[in-house]
Write a structure and sequence with these properties.
Elements: H1 2-16, H2 19-46, H3 50-61, H4 67-72, E1 88-91, E2 98-101, H5 106-116, H6 133-142, H7 151-161, H8 165-169, H9 190-193, E3 197-199, E4 202-206, H10 213-220, H11 224-230, E5 244-246, E6 263-265, H12 272-279, H13 283-289, E7 303-305
Antiparallel strand pairs: 1-2, 3-4, 4-5, 6-7
């Protein structure tokens, strides 16, 4: 019976794998690395938390991949209004063919976003501490920055998931391979192209083009069996660029930073596997916390416990 249940579980897990969400994670890390300097610059200049600026940029632009970001360098979804007399693009939003501001580059977008928040509608936010990202997120929603009912929660989730709040107090830094105990430092240059990230008392890498489970196993010194086990993966799984691969056994729940808000709101194209990787939780415990059986299917908007 145990063999039968584990086989069914592995099969269902395989069906639920969604590369989209894992690629989103890779895109988010890349976006943070690319634009953190601009966010910090705007924080010092306008006293807007860098965490809020980055989280809004990530959410509004889909980590720089939205049509507004790619065609108009608009990272914050700001529409034509008020003082704006510059160029614009048309896009269907709350109404057909709405006008959105167009910029020469991302720096102009970040600068205009800061100026936009100087408006009367958002003045109450500047009474908050620079480190109060939750207050800022909820204040932006209350002031009408976005119509999505979960906008504040989405910003807070992004900030906490990627430790963006550390930019507000200057403590943000990536953890490199030198702090990772289980990894063997080889001479092949693997760690020259792979950053090791720290998350939920664990470490993970992001799969690059040309990687496979065998090479990851060889370069890290972790057996194939353990890599598959640590990541809740079937043995025939082939990693794709953007996948997260954990290097130690995942935890039973999300990290303590989610203790006060221990939920996750399911996003489009997310599976339970994606969410387990996102928070570094063993998949069986994610099922257990939510009283799901292996055949359960989630949908956008569902609220899941992660602690």
């Amino acid at each position: 019976m145990k063999l039968r249940l584990s086989s069914i579980f592995a099969f269902i897990l395989f069906l639920h794998l969604s590369i989209f969400a894992q690629r989103t994670n890779q895109a988010y890390w890349s976006y943070i690395d690319q634009y953190k300097g601009l966010a910090i610059e705007q924080m010092h200049k306008y006293h807007i938390p860098a965490s809020i600026t980055l989280a809004q940029g990530l959410l509004e632009s889909g980590a720089g991949r939205s049509s507004l970001a790619t065609k108009a360098n608009n990272h914050f979804g700001i529409k034509v209004s008020g003082y704006w007399t510059g160029p614009y693009v048309l896009k269907n939003d709350d109404a057909p063919n709405e006008k959105f501001r167009k910029y020469k580059n991302a720096r102009e977008s970040y600068e205009d976003h800061s100026r936009f928040l100087q408006g009367k509608r958002y003045q109450g936010l500047f009474k908050l501490k620079i480190t109060d990202y939750k207050g800022w997120a909820r204040g932006l929603k209350a002031a009408g920055y976005a119509t999505a009912p979960t906008y504040a929660e989405s910003l807070i989730r992004i900030i906490e998931m990627y430790d963006l709040y550390k930019f507000d107090n200057g403590s943000y830094k990536h953890e490199k391979k030198t702090v990772v105990a289980p990894v063997n430092n080889t001479k092949t240059g693997f760690f020259d192209t792979h950053t090791i990230y720290s998350h939920n008392k664990n470490y993970f890498i992001i799969v690059e083009i040309g990687d496979n489970m065998a090479t990851i196993s060889k370069e890290t010194g972790i057996s194939l069996r353990k890599l598959y086990q640590y990541n809740d993966l079937p043995r025939d799984y082939a990693p794709t660029q953007g996948d997260l691969i954990y290097l130690k056994k995942k935890q039973k729940c999300a990290s303590k930073q989610f203790k006060k808000n221990p939920i996750h709101i399911v996003e489009h194209n997310q599976s339970l596997f994606d969410i387990s990787q996102l928070y570094g939780i063993r998949l069986k415990y994610l099922y257990k916390m939510n009283n799901f059986d292996p055949s359960h299917e989630i949908k956008p908007g569902d609220i899941l416990r992660i602690r």
